[in-house]
Amino acid sequence: MSKIAFIGLGNMGAPMASNLARAGHALAVHDLVPASVARLAEAGARAAASAHDAVAGADIVITMLPASRHVEGLYLGDDLLAHIDTRALVIECSTIAPESARKVAAAAQARGIAMLDAPVSGGTAGAAAGTLTFIVGGEADALARARPVLEQMGKNIFHAGPAGAGQVAKICNNMLLGVLMAGTAEALALGVANGLDPKVLSDIVAKSSGRNWATELYNPWPGVMEHAPASKGYAGGFGSDLMLKDLGLAGEAAQATRSSIPLGALARNLYAMHGAAGHGGLDFSSILKLYKPD
Fold first, then answer.
1. In which pathway does it act (predicted)?
2. For residues 101 and 163, what is the distance between their CA atoms, to the nearest angstrom?
3. Residues 5, 48 contacting (CB under 8 angstroms)
4. Residue 17, helix vs strand vs coil
5. Which pLDDT tens digit goes with each residue over 18-72?
6. Radius of gyration over every alpha carbon of the chain, rounded to an integer in angstroms
7. Cβ–Cβ contacts within 10 Å for residue 135, how many?
8. Which residues are catalytic?
9. Is residue 196 classed as helix, strand or coil in its secondary structure?
10. What pTM, to 2 d.p., does this model score?
């Protein structure tokens, strides 16, 4: 088993780290929220006093942080790379700008450290169940080293290309997800306003040409799916502010390549409106509130 440092124990990071602890790895964890660290310590992990402490002697370093500035701040600003053994493998699982991923990877390479960008898809349920999809950018030999550990947190592992490619693929996926969720919420609200039962309509769509991930696994209408965040007050899950961040990253990528993303831009504006209304901390399926105010 490996000696693993895991930094970032939010809604996604905590269950991912828990799966590694259950697999028997020697796990050191760190987060800015002490309660999150304490929960992992109860599961057998070592509570590290700092990120520098966590990576001391680690074979593998995994980070799951909110945004590009946090990743650059940790690896470059706090110079975490200087505290990582050059024989270690770094797996950066946050969803960040491709340029940030390339910048940090280049700094790691300059120190002789192998690094992968490996953002994930599958949500908190997938993180807890160990069924995440990892979308990986970096060298193939580094991915071969990472694969046994990634397989203890996920079911699907894709090599998207060189450094930063994992982030590009993840941004494209999340842009589509934001568009689909906003469209699904809009369609359900229209049907209910015209007298349909939301569950009946959802069942119809799920077996028809409008079916998508939201109608099958993550319905935005409260009460339709018992285990979806919509049925739990939109608590947990993938925050609307995080979706807004990812849609913003898609916009930056489009601007850099002069690509046209009219639906992606519209979805970003819808989530900006949603956040401005005070719902940024709710799961992203709460975009339904734009069409069905409380």
1. Amino-acid degradation; L-valine degradation
2. 7
3. yes
4. helix
5. 999 999 999 999 999 999 999 999 999 999 999 999 999 999 999 999 999 999 9
6. 20
7. 26
8. 170
9. coil
10. 0.91
